[in-house]
Amino acid sequence: MDTDLPDLLALLELTRLDEDLFEGESRNIVGPRIFGGQVVSQALIAAARTVTDRPAHSLQAYFLRPGDARLPITYRVERVRDGGTFSTRRVVAEQRGRPIFDMAASFHTAEEGPQHQTAEFSAPDPDTLVTEHEMNAQFLENEEMSENFRAAMLRRKPVELRPVTRRHPLTPEKSPPLRQTWLRATGLQSDDPLLHQALLAYASDHNLMGAALLPHGFTFVNREVQVASLDHTVWFHRPIRIDDWLFYDMESPIATGARGFARGRVFNRQGELVASVCQEGLIRQQS
């Protein structure tokens, strides 16, 4: 099912059921299971609604059970601590009375301090690259497949992606565990810092575990391999504007024990490191 930016923004408008209890709608974004980035972004919104004037600086989440995209999600927020400059929240997402997701988030009052940055990147200008949608359409033009599957592979996404490297979405060549893409939320008209953070949290779950699949020639649609996110962590280093291009640099330094580990760095166009991401996922070959 196609998902445009207005659809995602609607998903982030949670209903407040009680002071620390929220409900969010679901949407069939990648199939019958809820896309992990949707739950992360909604949980961040829920946690932030219980904090006053402190932006998030980190979140650490675990995916406990597959979520059902046909059902709404309940988010229970626990106010763990409110200190002089930091606030900590725990969020448990539930469906059918069972937890499907658990997250801790920390919020920090903006303040000055020492600064340094060693991370840097080099990449083609995003205006010289085609979108992921256009790239996939070119690769799949002459492929034989059902119309439903073709529609799923070519569905619109709320955040525009422009990969640096062209890869076949179904049969990629084995390659080093590196993925790089520019991303932005085209048409976003909001200065709300929380919304920009939530949209980046959503987008950060796109393609990250895919870096761990590249050395093996796997994709998320291979029937011989089961892939699922186990956890997700984001650190917000600087204020973010996702309505301008951000560069997402991803790598997977290791896969072992049926688990792949991936990490990502997010830069703005000025070369500033604005966020860091880590994720571990299941990579289980089916017998």
Brief digest:
The chain has 287 residues and is of the alpha+beta class.
Second rung of CATH, namely the architecture of the largest domain: Roll
In one word, what is the shape?
globular
Number of strands: 13
Please report the distance between the alpha carbons of the first and last residues. 30 Å
Domain module tally: 2
Mean pLDDT over the residues: 93
Q: Work out the helicity level.
A: 10-25%
Find the CATH topology of the largest domain: Thiol Ester Dehydrase, Chain A
Global structural class: alpha+beta
Helix count, per DSSP? 6
Major beta sheet summary: 13 strands, antiparallel
Using the coordinates above, name the CATH class of the largest domain. Alpha Beta
C-alpha Rg (nearest Å): 19 Å
Order of helices and strands: HEEHEEEEHHEEHHEEEEE
The CATH H-level superfamily of the largest domain is Hotdog Thioesterase
List keywords for this structure.
Thiol Ester Dehydrase, Chain A, single chain, 13-stranded antiparallel β-sheet, alpha+beta, 6 helices, 287 residues, 2 domains
Task: Describe the protein in words.
The chain is of the alpha+beta class. It has two domains: 1-110, Roll (Thiol Ester Dehydrase, Chain A), CATH 3.10.129.10; 126-287, Roll (Thiol Ester Dehydrase, Chain A), CATH 3.10.129. 18% of the residues lie in helices and 36% in strands. The protein has six helices and 13 strands. Strands 1, 2, 3, 4, 5, 6, 7, 8, 9, 10, 11, 12 and 13 form a 13-stranded antiparallel β-sheet that branches. The radius of gyration is 19 Å and the shape is globular. The chain starts with a helix and ends with a strand. The model has no long low-confidence stretch (mean pLDDT 93).
